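Q: What structure does this chain adopt?
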Amino acid sequence: MPDFYTLYLVVLIAGLSHCVLWATILYRYRTLAGLRYWLAGGVANVAGGILLAIDGGAGHFATTVGGNAIACLAFHLNTIGLRRFHGDRPLWALHAGLLGASVLAMAITWRPWWGQNPLYVTSQCIPLALAVLYLARRRTRELGAIITMCALATAITAHGIVACAVTVRLSGIAPDVSLVSLAAIDLLVFILAGIVWNFGFIVSVVDSLMAKVERLAAEDDLTGLPNRRQFMRLLAEECARETGEPFSVMLMDLDRFKGINDGLGHVAGDAALKHVADTVRRGMRSVDVFARLGGDEFGILLRGVQGDAASEIAEQANAALRASPFLWHGETIGLTISIGVTSAVPGRRHTPEELIECADSALYATKGRKRDGWTFLPFTSRPGFGAGQAGGATNARLADRGSRIPLAG
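A:
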């Protein structure tokens, strides 16, 4: 069994490796919350390891109490880093109070380390237990959090066994318990657990970065809406459902967008697109998918609605934009949109492309009138679909701003 001097050197080396690790990751990804606290925790571990290595198990007041107090600080910093990494506010008062109470208790009750061991391990286990409770309460069970919880629970268990053994020996119930060997095993387990929970932190960082990449790949950077790729993926999933639930597809264009870009500049054009996105988004249901498909074209997947209900949503989008003027450098600019709508045929297997093409035909019918309106085109009225059935603008029942092209028959 290695002596404590050697084990404390291992603690020091492990702490140094964690410092290098987190300093490198922090240098590359400075905006990730929590990394600074994990780096600070690694630095504290190194400082604690130095003091405990100097003590070497001799039990001097300054090195024993100081080393363990700094080790407790490191674990509190790790827990604070977890909360910050996941976007939650650190419980500064709680951690400061627990750390202060732990250090004060170590100083007041100091004596040869066997007697104080239960206090040391309890003080170290408190921030670890807080971290486990925090991760356990989170609904998201990502792999990094699971690895971290298992490692922390292992460290707490090892410390708890040693604390119980020391208490049993001091009480005289089992005076022959080999505390030196047991404490050495505990420290080895704790070192391994520390390496593993830092590995869990790394897995969480990787998962976070991957989620960010996936979000950027599926999100339009100007409006924050899903992009064409994401819209087509979700539409394909809707088309592949076996439930037969109704759904509709809506395409919309910002009217006279080129004139805004040419007359006011591309910055104004971008602002106009964001205004349209924000205005229409406020009227969307949570189950719908509102996406920017490119340029001034937007698409909406309307789940659970078809026909008249989809047309009503299109009219509401038109009305919302008319009621929300766009201000540019103090000047009010009226924005309008043209919309084309189609609905999936119940019981029929569709492809995303054919629904998009049908909605696009409806959109061009709107643009062929006065713009600032909508056209509903039943899928089976589209040329080339529905044998023996056809429809067109000549059959349309026109409203002031909306048109429904019915099924001919």
